[in-house]
Amino acid sequence: MIILDITRLIVLLNIYRMESDNMNKKMLISWFSIYLSITLIMICGITVLDRADDDRQFAKNAVAEEESTDNKYIENNTQVIDKEVEKIEKETFVENNANDKEKETINVDDVVVHMGNGKADRTNVGARIFTDVDPDKPMVAITFDDGPDAKSTNLILDALDEYDARATFFVVGYKIPDAETTVKRAYDIGCEIGSHTYDHVNLTTLNKSQRRIQLNNTKKMITAITGQKRVLLRPPYGATNEEIIKEIDTPIILWSIDTEDWITRDPEKTVDNVMKDVRDGSIILMHDSYEETAEATIELIKRLTDEGYQLVTVSELGYHKFGGLARGVRYGAMYGDE
């Protein structure tokens, strides 16, 4: 097309040179200008269309490449975790004989509370609820993130066991292989094990496939160690969005009291941050990856118990305050007055 246009321009120029009449020359100049403008517009239009087509093809190839990468990512990670789960199961962490506390649980495997006014159903399916909780007395849930840690977590478990208290541990998946016995011990004394993702990543920065890996891998390992049927989620940094909430089939647990233990690393301040704001139904955020937190927890358990609080798991708190927890709902506290 460009060669044809050049040929036409040469012909017009030759005619222009041969014309002696000024009027004819002016007319040729006008035609030449119009023709040149049209040609340039057509060239630009074709270039834009070609580039748009290239962009569409590039985007299509990028999507296909991303899907292929995601599939390989899922396959590779699943294989790694499946091997780890197989190793855990061979070590027989899940025992068939129930301990004494297990016999004192309420059977809630089939309990679903249907709510009115368009609210989500609340469920206790898979939750472990102990019979030693008095629903008429105040209760709080102490929760720990970022563990397990073989040393500091066990110091916390010592204190919980001494006071016959319970807590919820939101564990990071990649840390579990180095502390499997600690996770099992926490479960055996009545604590609840939740997920804090596999790599402690902000879920809002990941795509759907990557989020699925972060959640499923940790859940598989927790279930392999404890036999726990329901695994609650605490997203790192508390970060979620509506897309993530739609994907998740479990309650999302946040907090109402942030002890800031990871900032201050001061046991006294950690305890004070709890005692000044604690109330019936509070969810307390701590981190069992610090020995200072373990020290604070020992004092905190004593103080809360002395003031009449029952220390329960998150699922127990939800059971007694709301009748159960709803899937895909964020809970920052459970005061029972919603």
Tell me the layout of helices and strands.
Layout: H1 2-18, H2 22-90, E1 105-106, E2 112-113, E3 122-123, E4 129-130, E5 139-145, H3 152-162, E6 168-171, H4 180-188, E7 192-195, H5 208-226, H6 242-247, E8 252-253, E9 257-258, H7 261-264, H8 267-275, E10 283-287, H9 291-306, E11 310-311, H10 314-322, E12 325-326, E13 330-331
Parallel strand pairs: 5-6, 5-10, 5-11, 6-7, 8-13, 9-10
Antiparallel strand pairs: 1-4, 2-3, 3-12
Tell me what you see in this structure.
By secondary structure, the protein is α/β, with parallel strands linked by helices. It has two domains: 1-90; 97-331, Glycoside hydrolase/deacetylase (TIM Barrel, Alpha-Beta Barrel). Helix content is 50%, strand content 11%. The protein has ten helices and 13 strands. The protein has helices at residues 2-18, 22-90, 152-162, 180-188, 208-226, 242-247, 261-264, 267-275, 291-306, 314-322, and strands at residues 105-106, 112-113, 122-123, 129-130, 139-145, 168-171, 192-195, 252-253, 257-258, 283-287, 310-311, 325-326, 330-331. Strands 5, 6, 7, 9, 10 and 11 form a six-stranded parallel β-sheet that branches. A hairpin with an 8-residue loop joins strand 2 (112-113) and strand 3 (122-123). Helix 1 (2-18) packs antiparallel against helix 2, helix 2 runs parallel beside helix 5 (208-226) and helix 8 packs parallel to helix 9. Mean pLDDT is 82; it is low at 96-101.
